[in-house]
Design goal:
alpha/beta, four-stranded parallel β-sheet
Length: 121
């Protein structure tokens, strides 16, 4: 959550580690305001990671989508969900990474990859 202590810890941690060879993604949990996220990401050179079914990224030159499952990790993404995800990626002008972080992550990722391959033809 966006407490002064958590913001201080975030600043302390990311200010103390080298950024030259890494790209860091921050996926805030809780009720952070988009403007606050953007300020911290810019200040600390972070990519704003989001679940694209919950929010839009507010900062970063890379788009990082992390899918936890609608309503929880046991969710199995439908073909309609994957179509929506495809459209979100397609309309994004940034390099986009997609990470499925749910129980059916392998199956969902393979089905999404198949959808991407079909659409490229």
């Amino acid at each position: 959550k966006p407490s002064e202590e958590n913001i201080s810890n975030l600043r302390s941690f990311f200010s103390s580690i080298p950024h030259e060879d890494f790209v860091f993604v921050w996926e805030p949990r809780g009720h952070w305001q988009p403007a606050e996220i953007a300020v911290l990401c810019q200040e600390l050179d972070l990519i704003h990671g989001v679940d694209p079914f919950q929010a839009e990224p507010v900062f970063g030159n890379i788009c990082y989508f992390r899918l936890h499952g609608k309503g929880g990790y046991r969710y199995h993404y439908t073909e309609q969900d994957l179509e929506i995800l495809y459209e979100k990626c397609r309309h994004n002008e940034k390099l986009t990474y997609v990470l499925f972080n749910n129980v059916s992550m392998l199956s969902d990722a393979q089905r999404f990859l198949n959808l991407l391959q079909r659409r490229r033809r």
